[in-house]
Write a structure and sequence with these properties.
Radius of gyration: 58 Å
Helix content: over 70%
Distance between the termini: 168 Å
Shape: rod-shaped
Largest sheet: none
Number of strands: 0
Structural class: mainly alpha
Length: about 150
């Protein structure tokens, strides 16, 4: 039985050596991974300091300016709206006054014209009755005075 134990011991020795080698490989891989992670994080921090931080500061400044411009635009829009409303009100008031004045002129012209039309109608009836009176008495109408 000693022959079989020698083979088993050799195999156990090989397995122990392989386990030690595997442990060392895992330790080396862990150390290399940590170094790679540290280097990557250092690079990310450097990029953040060199590029991201100045860009963020510039964007913040730009946004502050944009906010100021928006406040100015809102103020201008409000003033334009107020002035537009005032102008619209003034135009409506002027149109109402023009309509009212036109109505008064129309009414005034109508009453004045009705008086003139009444006088013309009266004169026309007078001329007609004078001419009818001449016809009834047998006198010939004077065509030159009628036209």
């Amino acid at each position: 039985m000693t022959g079989n134990l020698d083979t088993t011991n050799v195999l156990l020795g090989i397995m122990a050596a392989v386990s030690v080698i595997e442990g060392l490989v895992l330790l080396v891989v862990g150390i290399l991974a940590y170094r790679l992670y540290s280097q990557a994080m250092r690079t990310v921090r450097e990029l953040e300091v060199r590029h991201v931080a100045p860009l963020a500061a510039w964007v913040e400044t730009l946004m502050t300016k944009v906010d100021g411009i928006l406040i100015d635009v809102k103020g201008i829009t409000a003033r334009v709206g107020d002035r537009t409303e005032r102008l619209d009100s003034a135009i409506r008031h002027t149109i109402d006054r023009v309509d009212e004045t036109a109505g008064r002129v129309r009414s005034s012209m109508s009453s004045g014209m009705s008086g003139i039309i009444g006088v013309v109608n009266g004169a026309w009836h007078l001329v007609g009755s004078v001419l009818n009176g001449r016809r009834a008495s047998g006198e010939a109408p004077d065509h030159a005075s009628v036209t």
